[in-house]
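ok so for the tutorial part 2 we go from a plain amino acid sequence to predicted structure tokens. step 1 is just haveing the sequence, like this:
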Amino acid sequence: MQTGDAVHEGRKLVTLNGRVAIVTGGGSGIGRGIALGFADQGVRVAVCGRRAELLEQTVEQIVKSGGSAMSVPADVTDRGEVERFVASVVNEWGQVDILVNNAGVSGRTPIDDPDDTRWLNILDVNLTGSYLCSKVVLPHMKEPGRIVNMSSVLGRFGVPGYAAYCTAKHGIIGFTKALALEVAGRGITVNAICPTWVDTDMARQGIEETAAILGMSAEAFRTQAVASVPIKRMAEVGEIVALTMYLCQADAASITGQVINVCGGATAGSGG
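step 2 — the prediction. this is what the tokens look like for a chain of 272 residues:
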């Protein structure tokens, strides 16, 4: 990869160094990995989420490595909090070049559950949160802007008992495609990533919850889950990070409205 500005076919391209990225859900797991990945490339990184202590751990790790980062606790389902967070980033650095809509929650939502609270929360955080963050960030984003939405393989197929999460992640795919066309003329790309199982706290929580429902140990269910992936392993956070970095590079300027599976072959026979 070239460093500094480069000219390609008469068009000036700019690398990631010096750009400003917002990563929602940046306090742990994939979000933290993406924030650290950006910082390694000289990007100024702002992370938001509900747990201030986790966000500060991400910022501390970046600053210790010589990077520039800030955190603002914010609930992505609350437009006022999103506006406050984005305003603080713009006031600090004057711009937003990249948005990664990574904040998400999961959990079982069987259709016979009399309580709708978890269904509403999962849709709010995963889907409405991505909509609100994009809506608030876009007025501050100029060419070459990048939005990366985190979907899931459950945005490609269904899993019994997880209707809310499947619905939200299917919705992210539709949102990605529609928004990509809406902002294409502004030099902004919008893409989505669909990971399979990734070894994170969210995955461990899902494994434990499902294993308990099935009356088996978490380790036994994990073994079963991994066996269902053709490459016979979970994806690594670094693999999701690498794809995110590429989609935000100048070389990916023609990639928009795309949904890319990082699934170990799990969707190969599903048409997804």
